[in-house]
Amino acid sequence: MSHAILLGTLLAGAGGTIAGWALGDLTRRYRHGVEQLDALQRQLPQPYSAVLFQQRQLRELRGVVNDIHRLVRDVTKTLEKRPS
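Now predict its structure.
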């Protein structure tokens, strides 16, 4: 009977040690992955925000060009309709 208790205790201790080692390894890998992801995200916003800024500027310029085109078109149409 005492041998069964001793064997059960040893098996439980060994199982707990193995499970702790495995979970610790998974936790370490997870934290390392999170740190790498954070490092990559810190690098991403700078070029990405520059691209968004350029796209916004291009949209504004496109709007200005379209407005000028409408004005020039209206003026040329009025000049064509004018009696000579």
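The radius of gyration is 36 Å.
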